[in-house]
Each structure stands twice: as structure tokens, then as C-alpha cells.
Amino acid sequence: MKGKGTQVWKKSGAVYEGDWKFGKRDGYGSLSHPDPETGKLRRVYSGWWKGDKKSGYGIQFFGPKEYYEGEWCNNQRSGWGRMYYNNGDIYEGQWQNDKPEGEGMLRLKNRNRYEGSWERGMKNGHGRFFHLDHGQLFEGFWVDNVAKCGTMIDFGRDEAPEPTQFPIPKVEILDPDGVLKEALDKLMKPEEEEASPCP
User: Fold this and answer.
1) Where does a domain end: 109, 139, 174?
2) Cβ distance 43 to 31 under 8 Å?
3) For the domain that residue 43 is a member of, what is the CATH number?
4) Scanning 29, 153, 169, 181, which has the fewest C-beta atoms within 10 Å of its C-beta?
5) Measured distance CA(187)–CA(172) in Å, rounded
6) Membrane-crossing residues (predicted)?
7) Can you tell me the distance from the alpha carbon of 110 to that of 127, in angstroms, rounded to the nearest whole number?
8) Going along the chain, which residue ranges are E strands?
9) From CA 60, how far away is CA 31, in angstroms rounded?
């Protein structure tokens, strides 16, 4: 089978409409599944395919309000993409092996946000967390979603909807940068790069 065509899977009721090459989904196409409650077809993916796998740009719908738009490689989110979550959070940035990896931003429903490094789907490395609800900014180093060391400053505190009771006092340490560098040096470990078939 080559060119454009439609396939219906009898067992699952799934329907693919789009391009084919050598009997496999290849090119642009859409995949739909029947809704378990209504039985009506609901689109779950629209985008590019290669060798029967999602590859290139595409949009995957996980639920009515949860979807991903961005790059794919071998059926996994890989490259740049934006994920909208059911709870109102949005992640925008780099992906690898179906998880946030590299540089990215997570904007929470309450408008607070994290901008920085990700590894294995977690905050890892240098980053900044904007506590816009309290008018503070934390800049530092994360390990597996936990902020390990850094600095917290007031940031737009006067405009914050729920500012902290007291402003952050001035740092009185003689060498705050040296203290922070020493703490970071203890946390840093050599990064091992793993080969991946996807860029």
C-alpha cells in the first residue's frame, strides 16, 4: 500500500487516515479511537509518521484538556514541544525519550513558573523559580525536583496577590557568591552523556 488511504482496526475500532508507504503509516496522517462512553471517534493524533511511528511534528490528545504539540521521534516526544496538562499547568521546552530533557519552562496554573534545566522529566541543574503569588524569585540548583542551594530575593513583591509578611533582608555574608559556588561544587557531579537515536 502506497499513497493516501484509510485503515480501520476491527478489534479496537481505531481509524487511521493519511499517507502510506510500503504498507506502513508514512507521511501525514490522523489516528482516531472510539470514545468509550459515546462510541464516537475521537482524534488522538494528527501529524507526521515514519515507518509506522510518530516522527516529526504532531499533536497528541491525551484527554479533553490534555495534549502535546511538538516534535516526535519513534513514537516518543523528542525535540521541542509544548504540553498542556489537565490541571492547567503548561510545559514548554525540550523533550527526549518522552520526558522533559534540556532547557524548558513549566508554568503552573497559579502563574508561578520554573525556567531552567530538566533531566529525566525532573528539574535538574540550574534554574529559576518565580513565586509570582508571593513576589519572590529563587535562583539556584535543583536535583530531582528538589532545590538544593541558591538565592531567594524579593521580585515584584508590592504587586504580588499574596506577598510575604516581611521582605527578605539584605545578605550580610562577606562572600555570598563564594559560599554559593562552594555549595554548587559539592552538588555538581560529572554528567554522563547517553547515546540516543533521536536528536
Assistant:
1) 109
2) yes
3) 2.20.110
4) 169
5) 24
6) none
7) 19
8) 3-8, 15-21, 24-34, 41-50, 53-61, 67-73, 76-84, 90-96, 99-107, 113-119, 122-131, 136-143, 146-154
9) 9
Q: How many other CB atoms are there within 10 angstroms of residue 104's CB atom? A: 22
**Rounded to two decimals, what is the model's pTM?**
0.82
1: its cell numbers: 500500500
Whether residue 98 sits in one domain with residue 124: no
Grid cell locating 131: 513565586
Q: What is the pLDDT of residues 8-45, one digit of tens each?
A: 999 999 999 999 999 999 999 999 999 988 989 999 99
User: Which pLDDT score, from 0 to 100, does residue 171 have?
Assistant: 67
- Cell, residue 197: 537515536
Name the residue with cell 555538581: 188
Grid coordinates representing 47?
501529524
Pairing of strands 113-119, 99-107: antiparallel
